[in-house]
Amino acid sequence: MGDNIAAPFLPAQYVGEATTTSESKDLMNEEAASAFFKTAVLRLADVNNWESLSGSMSSGFQLTDLAGKPVAGPAETGMYIRIDIPGPGTHAGKGFDWVKIEQKEHIMLNEHQEVFFIRARPSEHPIQKSAGIAHFLRKEASSSFVLVRNGTTVTAAVYGRNEVPNTQSTDLGDRIRNAVVGSTGAIGISKLQWKALVKGVLE
Predict the structure, then answer these.
(1) How many CB atoms neighbour CB 197 within 10 A?
(2) 120-176-188-24 Cα dihedral, nearest 10 degrees
(3) Where exactly are the structural domains of the chain?
(4) Alpha carbon distance 24, 13 (integer Å)
(5) CATH topology of domain 2-201
């Protein structure tokens, strides 16, 4: 049911892989579910804490401003997320993968249903844009981090859409690295990380 409620807020799938990773928690009543949803929203928006929520195998996540400088506080539309994936990083991203938060919304559908989501997309390094997309996936890809409250049930999910390895980089080393990291196997590994994250958000 959470997928059905979230569907209107997700990008259309038209190329590459589509992945969905979700976890749900049932509460005693709607009052408890509403309060828990608010707590889960704070956790999901605290991107700088995702690594500790996801466990020791996680990538590192750091919110930055438009100049690539680390910032504290919750995620906001227009911010960047600097991702430290285990293994070699990108030259385009100065050793990191980068995504930009293109939308953050909290929608009250009715008194029983609400949705919160953060959608991010592969981007250039904030101050090295001429080097191209600094991520192992192409710019068509998106990751939507979603919370849904449906009555007494709260669902956390990560929806990956249009996931295609970024082998169009101008840097040969980045093309090779992205082909490997962006393979189906690596997408499977990231699904394990997202599973740990959605569980952590709902603890």
Answers:
(1) 24
(2) -10
(3) 2-201
(4) 24
(5) Alpha-D-Glucose-1,6-Bisphosphate; Chain A, domain 4 (3.30.530)
